[in-house]
Specification:
The complex is a heterodimer. Chain A has 7 helices and 10 strands. Chain A is of the alpha/beta class. Chain A has one domain: Rossmann fold (3-Layer(aba) Sandwich), CATH 3.40.50. In chain A, strands 6-7-8-3-9-10 form a 6-stranded mixed beta sheet, with helices on both faces. Chain A has a 4-stranded antiparallel beta sheet with strand order 2-1-4-5, covered by helices on one side. The two termini of chain A are about 20 Å apart. By secondary structure, chain B is of the alpha+beta class. Chain B has 4 domains: about 190 residues, no CATH class; about 200 residues, no CATH class; about 210 residues, no CATH class; about 170 residues, no CATH class. In chain B, the strands form 3 sheets. Chain B has a 6-stranded mixed beta barrel with strand order 2-3-9-5-8-6. In chain B, a hairpin with a 5-residue loop joins strand 6 and strand 7. In chain B, helix 8 packs parallel to helix 21, helix 22 crosses helix 25 and helix 23 runs antiparallel to helix 24. Classes of the chains: A alpha/beta, B alpha+beta. Chains A and B meet through helix 1, helix 2 and helix 3 of A and helix 13, helix 22, helix 23 and helix 25 of B. Bound molecules: adenosine-5'-diphosphate and magnesium ion.
Chain lengths: ~220, ~850
């Protein structure tokens, strides 16, 4: 089943002399339960692509279908609600809310949606993340790897249609990186979670089901 | 080091918004300090000018100095200038009247004395030699043709002597047996006319004062010497030296030998009268403390914020090897650079404010307070110095703290991207009510407030301080106004006529002049010393009545050794004033008191309260007698027994008597019914259609009477209130503005620092509506918190002000409800506007851009 479909997606920044074509007519699709890695040089347009898929930015041209829905037909508020139900985003710098503790950060999307937190689910998730004993800690009391695990938890808690990760290991040492990647792989297997991950690291990319390579805003290789 | 200085400058320029915020704080604070100090100096100058205008520009006057004394004084190095006045003598003249049978001639030694001692020239010029004379207006009025400018006048002046050869001075009233001896004849040309000068020509002097220049006194060669000191501040030492005895603050200011110009010294030195000056100093101190506290708070906060925002910079500097000292210096340099710009602007703005205020004072108050003296905007060193010192000190210490913070930033902080704000770790359970009422936005807002209290502390304190200052100042205004404002309240007449002499039948003529029916005539007994109802039955007095009776007897000199010189009857008794009132007005008055005219017309209405200011400057008002309705007051009137029944005991006064207080109390009776008591007109009050015209008419046609245009006084009073309001509300406004600057800085920076957090919330799916809702809730939460503190403190402050100013009077504590409501509304509106402003900027920003800032 096709969960994501990207159609002729383009993004142009600036005008005239400052014009930058960050993404140039990109099309591809992703099946449910797939683990896709996107690789490419710095500045090639990977983050731009990811943000467009996640609906946090709007394209210059093209369409994105998630679960068959054209996300750019929605207005900002509809998109926000769609995002908190169907998309989980993980950033390189975690972007946790400093005043909320681990548990609160993780359950934030549910709370925003006025959904009840299933305590059993939460406990299971915390175990999976290895954060059972840290659930009352604040972000600044955690290591980078732990913070990243919290943000993965925050992405997983809603069981979204798709998880987007932008260099989730870019800021971590190799041991923590391995932990994060295996965590993503585990959730991919256990929950049949669809994941699209950007990375610089070919070793990590190789663990994905599929690698998409981008250069100058274009897909140059897919396998 | 040069690089770091450049960096400081770059920081300021790059971070324009924050720098401008800090700059506004500095400018406002400095301007306020400068304006308060400048206003103080200008006010002092006005009072000094007024004192010079009315008394003359000298500090002490010595009587009876001979030529040698003068020489000694001339050589005294403490003395800046002396003026010599000679009493030339008395001369008979044709137009003499009963109480002014002479012309009293004086002469100044030098021409400068006319201006230095402010001789009030009405027309013409000052004399230039001993053949010219300046006459008093009084003389001119006696014969306008004969005593006019350009005419000659021949005087035969000599000494006043009693038959047994005693020399008499201006203090001695005219005695029928006195003669003028040793007279000399001299002819003068009249060159000018002056206002009566009560220094030369005091009440009781039988001679009309006139002035010439350069004549010597031929009889006793004595002079009066007016001395101006070089250093008025050390007047005690100088006076001691001049007088040859120790002179202190407590020494008498007028004796047979000298007279101190206390009103000039008081304002020049601000030391003389302890009560007034203590009040001025404490007021200034309170104002300065409020300014300093608010501005230190604001400026310090600005620096803290800018350091927080530039943390990355400092971490970066540290990581490339800048020492703590260098970083500190860079922050302080940044602060001082702002000071170099802000302080001069502040001083200029402050002086512009003083200038505008003096213009307002001059136009609003006009001549009401200070005759002929305009308030000037005095630019002097003191306010500028105070502003600079306070400004620099404030900036230095504010930036010092921020500098310490900045120097503590380590490269690690930068790398780990630690949040500056320490987050309170304790578990915060948001009450389920909040979630139910406000949703997740409410929960996050609540947790934000609970966990990062420090972030909000400044905003909360700023708001609370502004609310506190506003409520307290408001109470202060309320009491100042209601205490002084009652003077002319509820007065339903606009012209008041009193007689300058005891016996003035002409008072009745006024009614013809004014041509009005709406008047009240009060009468007093025509017997000055016996015209009281003397109550010897002391059981009729309250304790207060007895106390003030004793006090009054003491004042009149009964307990003085020399009491017989005054021929006072010192028996214990109270002298009740019996006041007659015209028939119509008595009817009105009775009606106002709820009495039936017919049943009370042959009775008296007792005004029983007495009000005075005691030695501690506290106003006291209590009842004097125990009499009740239907009691009969028995006493002696004009040496005969008199009984009057009391129709009512009240503190409501008839028209015209509102401002008269006597510790004997007043008994109001109908003049017609009690005509036999021997009444003579006392006070006439008129409600005229055109009070100004009526006052002028009376003044012109019956100059013996003194006329007060009440309406004019009411206007003057209103102007003073207006002025006080301008000052106080101006002050409150600027203090609030400083607070607003502070709040603005804090809120905008808080929101900016949290941009990433907001972007994250949005990226996990918070809608804009939910987001705005969350921010609004946050605003409401801490506004409420600030209001709780501010209002509570304000109530304490307002109660303290009540205790300090008004508790001794009849005014109860006035709950400052209006001020509280205004505060609540203002706080919400203000915070809401600032939030909206910052939010509109944040909402405009793309989520990605914000997140990307750190993520690329
Ligand atoms: N807001 C922007 N304005 C202009 N150019 C941008 C903006 N954001 C990204 N770019 C440019 O778009 C290109 C792609 O950026 P990005 O998707 O972040 O690359 P990657 O994540 O692969 O390193 C880069 O050349 C970048 O400079
Ligand atoms: Mg990128």
């Amino acid at each position: 089943m096709e969960i994501l479909k990207v159609q002729n997606l383009s993004k142009v920044y600036g005008k005239g002399e400052n014009k930058v074509i960050a993404l140039n007519d990109v099309s591809f699709s992703v099946e449910k339960g797939e683990f896709v890695a996107i690789v490419g040089a710095s500045g090639s347009g990977k983050s731009t692509l990811l943000h467009l898929i996640g609906g946090v930015d709007r394209p210059t041209r093209g369409k994105v279908f998630i679960d068959g829905k054209n996300i750019y037909e929605m207005n900002d508020d509809q998109l926000a609600i769609f995002r908190r139900r169907q998309v989980g985003i993980i950033y390189q710098f975690y972007n946790l809310i400093p005043i909320l503790n681990v548990e609160e950060n993780i359950t934030l999307p549910l709370e925003l949606d006025n959904r009840n937190v299933n305590q059993k689910d939460l406990k299971e998730l915390l175990e999976l993340l290895g954060l059972e004993r840290r659930k009352n800690h604040l972000p600044n009391e955690l290591s980078g790897g732990q913070q990243q695990r919290v943000s993965i938890g925050r992405a997983l808690i809603t069981h979204p249609a798709i998880i987007l990760a932008d260099e989730p290991t870019g800021n971590l040492d190799s041991k923590s990186s391995d932990e994060i990647v295996s965590l993503l792989k585990k959730s991919n297997k256990d929950y049949k979670q669809t994941i699209i991950m950007i990375t610089h690291n070919m070793e990590i990319a190789k663990q994905a089901d599929r690698i998409i390579k981008i250069e100058d805003g274009k897909i140059v290789q897919e396998d | 080091m040069k690089v770091l200085n450049k960096l400081s400058l770059k920081n300021l320029l790059l971070n324009k918004k924050r720098s401008i915020g800090t700059l506004i704080g500095i400018v406002l604070s400095v301007a306020l300090v400068c304006a308060v100090a400048g206003m103080f100096i200008s006010l002092k100058d006005t009072l000094v000018q007024t004192a010079i205008q009315s008394q003359g520009n000298y500090h002490i006057e010595l009587y009876n100095q001979n030529d040698e004394d003068v020489k000694v004084l001339e050589n005294n190095r403490d003395i800046e200038e002396i003026e010599i006045l000679n009493d030339i003598g008395y001369s008979d003249f044709n137009e003499k009247t009963e109480d002014r049978p002479y012309i009293h001639l004086y002469s100044y030694k030098d021409e400068k004395s006319f201006t230095n001692l402010t001789v009030d020239l009405l027309d013409g010029r000052y004399p230039k030699n001993s053949n010219e004379i300046l006459i008093s207006e009084e003389l001119y009025l006696l014969n306008k043709d004969k005593y006019d400018i350009g005419k000659n006048i021949t005087l035969n002046y000599g000494e006043r002597k009693t038959l047994d050869g005693y020399v008499m001075t201006k203090e001695n009233p005219y005695n029928e047996d006195e003669v003028i001896s040793n007279s000399i004849e001299r002819t003068f040309t009249i060159v000018g006319i002056m206002d009566r000068d009560y220094e030369l020509d005091p009440n009781g002097d039988p001679g009309i004062g006139c002035l010439t220049l350069g004549l010597e006194n031929n009889f006793n060669k004595q002079h009066s010497v007016y001395i101006r000191l070089k250093h008025p501040t050390s007047y005690e030492k100088s006076f001691s030296e001049i007088l040859g005895t120790t002179f202190t603050k407590k020494s008498p200011i007028v004796t047979d030998e000298y007279s101190v110009n206390a009103s000039l010294l008081r304002w020049q030195v601000l030391k003389f009268d302890s009560g007034t000056t203590t009040m001025i100093y404490s007021l200034i101190t309170i104002l300065l403390v409020i300014i300093v506290v608010t501005s230190v708070f604001c400026i310090k906060n600005s620096f803290d914020i800018s350091v927080m925002e530039k943390k990355k910079n400092y971490g970066m500097l540290a990581s490339v090897g800048a020492t703590k000292k260098q970083i500190k210096k860079s922050v302080i340099t940044e602060g001082l650079m702002l000071g170099v710009i802000g302080i001069p602007i502040g001083i200029i703005v402050g002086y512009i404010a003083v200038f505008i205020l003096t213009i307002i004072v001059n136009s609003v108050i006009g001549d009401f307070i200070t005759r002929n003296v305009e308030m000037r905007c005095i630019i002097s060193l003191f306010p500028i110095l105070v502003s600079i010192i306070l400004g620099v000190v404030t900036i230095y210490f504010s930036s010092l703290r921020a500098a310490k913070k900045a120097s503590k930033v380590s490269p690690i902080d930068l790398i780990r991207n630690n949040d500056d704000v320490k987050i309170n770790k304790k578990k915060v359970k948001s009450p389920s009510v909040i979630k139910k009422l406000f949703g997740i936005g409410g929960v996050i807002a609540y947790k934000n407030l609970k966990r990062s209290k420090k972030k909000y502390r400044t905003t909360v304190i700023s708001l609370a301080v502004s609310v506190f200052v506003f409520i307290s100042m408001n109470t202060f205004m309320y009491y100042t106004f209601s205490v002084t404002g009652t003077y002319y309240k509820n007065i339903d007449y606009n012209v008041m006529v009193t007689s300058a002499f005891d016996d003035s039948p002409k008072m009745e003529d006024v009614l013809k002049v004014s041509g009005t029916d709406d008047y009240t005539m009060l009468y007093q007994s025509k017997w000055t010393s016996d015209g009281y109802l003397e109550i010897s039955d002391l059981s009729k007095l309250t304790d207060f009545g007895k106390d003030i009776m004793d006090e009054g007897l003491k004042e009149q000199g009964c307990f003085d050794e020399r009491k017989d010189t005054y021929n006072l009857d010192c028996n214990k008794k109270l002298q009740m004033n019996v006041i007659g009132i015209d028939e119509n007005s008595f009817k009105e008055y009775a009606k106002k008191l709820g009495l039936n005219y017919n049943s009370v017309k042959d009775k008296g209405i007792l005004i029983n309260n007495y009000r005075y200011i005691n030695a501690d400057n506290v106003q006291i008002e209590k009842g004097i007698y125990n009499y009740k309705k239907d009691d009969v007051i028995k006493g002696i009137y004009n040496k005969k027994p008199l009984e009057i029944e009391v129709a009512k005991v009240t503190d409501k006064r008839p028209r015209g008597l509102e401002r008269y207080w006597s510790y004997g109390g007043y008994l109001i009776v109908s003049e017609e019914v009690f005509h036999d008591l021997g009444f003579t007109p006392y006070i006439l009050t008129i409600q005229a259609d055109n009070p100004t015209q009526v006052s002028l008419d009376i003044n012109e046609k019956i100059p013996e009477l003194s006329v007060v245009n009440i309406e004019e006084n009411v206007q003057a009073e209103k102007s003073i209130y207006l002025l006080m309001s301008i000052f106080l509300y101006g002050f409150i406004t600027v203090i609030t503005l400083i607070g607003v600057t502070n709040i603005f800085n804090t809120i905008t920076s808080n929101l900016e620092l949290r941009q990433k957090e907001f972007a994250t919330l949005k990226s996990v799916g918070m809608t804009r509506k939910e987001f705005n809702w969350m921010i609004n809730l946050e605003t409401i939460f801490y506004s409420i918190k600030a209001l709780i503190y501010g209002v509570a403190l304000g109530l304490v402050g307002s109660y303290l002000i009540y205790l300090a100013t008004a508790s001794n009077m009849d005014y109860g504590y006035h709950f400052p409800l209006a001020a509280i409501i205004i505060s609540i509304l203002a706080v919400f509106i203000l915070v809401f506007i600032i939030m909206r402003y910052s939010m509109s900027k944040i909402n405009k920003q793309n989520i990605i851009e914000t997140i990307r800032k750190d993520n690329i």
